Amino acid sequence: MSIDPAALPPPAERAAQARLTAAKLRTVGVEGVALGWVDNAGIARVKAVPVGGLEHAAEWGVGAAPCFDVFLVDDSMATDRSVGGPTGDLRLYPDLDRLVPLAAQSGWAWAPADRYRQDGTPHPGCQRLFARRMEAAAAERGLTLRAGIEVEWVVAEAGPPEAEPVFPTRGPAYGMHRLTDLSDYLLDILRALGEQGLTVLQVHPEYAPGQFEVSLAAESPVAAADTSVLVRHTVRAVSARHGLRASFAPVVSPGVVGNGGHLHLSLWRERQNLCQGGPGPYGLTGEAEGFLAGALAALPALLVLGTPSPASYLRLVPSQWAGAYQCWGRENREAALRLVTGSTGEQATAANAEIKCFDAAANPYLTVGAVIAAGLAGLDEGLTLPPEVTADPADAPPGAVRRLPAGLPEAVEAYEKSAVLREALGEPLYDAVLAVRRAEIELFAGRSPEEIVAATRWRY
Ligand code: GLU
Ligand code: MG
Asked: Which CATH class is domain 11-123?
């Protein structure tokens, strides 16, 4: 018998855990707890309670309107068949196992929330519960996934948001100059992430002006999605303390390399990394190859989840290492699917695949859940990878390597044809995502790239 991953534990159990958590939080000076979720437009929304209210929140949830499921990036609302109006109520339940005091927001703690109906049944539109269901679908086959989402951001002086960004460093791409200019800032980010229990792998200056990146150790897909949200909150809070402002938007300056949200994934059976030691390309096992082939084939539709804004398509262009081609290649940074084998000797732990086309306008729970769904479908069908692309796909003969959709409408067409995603997401979540995408297409229709960038730059 399988256990429903979305079932709430009994209220008394939730209350008891919250009492213990609240007592611990008080000892470290926490007074407020932020209950966060990410909407279908990729915006992190929040309701907060005083620490004394955590027990009630854990027992009965905190109210939130269902219409948040169709909020857009500019806080207007799309209308969908079932949601969108002023009525109804959902309950936000903090995941107490993931609750953490915020190192850069003294007195505050944060917990990701799952959304349930008032009768305690899972809200079918809850993105985090969707990701948990997909993890469970992998577990039913004896498989686990390890994931990590890279966080890229651009930091600017905290001037008027409508002004063009002024960068606090003029150091070159990947330059030590930038690390020196922003020495205390970057150290504060490292410290805060470490205090929050996160394992940082790397922090480094990126390519675009004012751009940096942090990468985190692999964990379960839902945990990796939580981490990517927490990292962004942390970077934003540290930036504010330094008189700076961070942008995770797909593009911050039109025509300039943007911010990615690359997803690293490896597939495991018991303690065996299935991305190595097998008979497939570069040692992929049949299961890992099937999984990756499924994800690669589904990429045009997956973009609706992972590359979800009209602004995303200003970033997803060739020659910017954004992965604009539907192909794979070992260590190929222009391929949407980059195979990473690791150095000789460390393959058993290091081998993984990176999906590069995704960005941070995405709701990370939708991204990881949808990739698992597409991957498992590929594995079940026994798909194999197409031939590898070993060079820059832009240099291939025209048409030899398929470009990913160049705009959101084309991705939406692929999404509408995806029975796998429709079934995995379930009709309410599938429809709400579609309503948001269509409404954002309309919102930005006829606007220039400069206008789209200006409207989204400080929203994500
Ligand atoms: N900033 C690039 C992007 O838009 C990625 C650079 C890299 O490969 O890390 O995805
Ligand atoms: Mg990068």
From this structure: alpha beta
